[in-house]
Amino acid sequence: MLLVLFTGLIPLLTGFIYYHPKLAGNAWMKEAGVTEEQMKGSNMGKILALAYVFGLLISMAMMSIVIHQFSVYSILADEPGMKDPNSEISIWVKEFMDQYGTKFRTFKHGAFHGALTGLFFAWPLIGVNALFERKSAKYTAIHVGYWVITLALIGGVICQWM
Prior knowledge:
mainly alpha, 9 helices, 78% helix, 0% strand
């Protein structure tokens, strides 16, 4: 689970770069209606700690999205004999995993599913909030871009090395 502790940092690391003033930071502040003075008046320790906790939750959720083999365990979890390593079903699962356990376990595949998650999950969530908050399309695009990149990185790392 050390990998999850690392991937929980990816949103912070990506955000540090992505929202830097020389990249999307100034555009984001303008679109969000936030000033540098307002940014300085916040409790950064609390913000960073909570952002890391949320990053951990995202990383744990991404495991089931990018590692398809988890579905086998999910489907068979309540089957009689799953807890007995010598049962017919446990032996079948072991043989299945021996043959297919590493299929689609690459950084590229995980990044692909991470990016799809950004487009088909993060974009609608951000978009709905932006609509009701009366935020611009540029505001939405900035955040969606961040999440597509971030989720692609999390997905790639998890799929390759977990």
